[in-house]
């Protein structure tokens, strides 16, 4: 049996996007748009995505690597303030291993040429898994994809 452990950490990522807070928020709340940018690696195949974007709603994202490893993200939304704030909790699994549980807060405000967004994640890594830097890299890669999506004409999403 593996020893049980918990490691707590947090991180903040701030980004500026070339789109209004309404459009940036829509990229989080629209299932088609979110599915397009919400993956951290090009070689992963999405095998299941669901989004019920409202307080009490859920999100599920299941992706598979070329080697067949399954990554499962399951979230529940607790607070949604259009164009201002999203608060949700999620857990991550890789195959049968439960890696972590997180509380995430996404804040949007008008600024610069579009939107200033702050993503704050409080995470507990479980049972020996603790790769904070990999979590940050994966989140940043997803936000890079969000930036690319927001550079497209508004009618594209």
Automatic annotation (TrEMBL):
It holds the Pfam family AHSA1. SUPFAM superfamilies: Bet v1-like. Residues 19-145 form the Activator of Hsp90 ATPase homologue 1/2-like C-terminal domain. It comes from the Bacteria. Belongs to the AHA1 family. This is Activator of Hsp90 ATPase homologue 1/2-like C-terminal domain-containing protein. It comes from Lysobacter antibioticus.
């Amino acid at each position: 049996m593996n020893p049980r452990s918990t490691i707590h950490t947090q991180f903040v990522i701030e980004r500026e996007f070339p789109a209004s807070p309404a459009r940036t928020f829509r990229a989080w709340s629209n299932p088609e748009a979110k599915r397009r940018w919400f993956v951290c690696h090009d070689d992963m195949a999405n095998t299941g995505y669901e989004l019920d974007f409202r307080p009490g709603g859920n999100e599920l994202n299941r992706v598979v690597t070329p080697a067949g490893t399954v990554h499962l993200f399951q979230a529940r939304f607790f607070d949604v303030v259009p164009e201002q704030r999203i608060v949700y909790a999620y857990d991550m699994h890789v195959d049968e291993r439960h890696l972590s549980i997180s509380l995430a807060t996404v804040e949007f405000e008008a600024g610069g040429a579009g939107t200033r967004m702050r993503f704050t994640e409080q995470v507990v890594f479980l049972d020996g898994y603790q790769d904070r830097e990999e979590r940050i890299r994966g989140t940043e890669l997803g936000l890079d994809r969000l930036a690319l999506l927001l550079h497209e004409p508004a009618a594209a999403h």
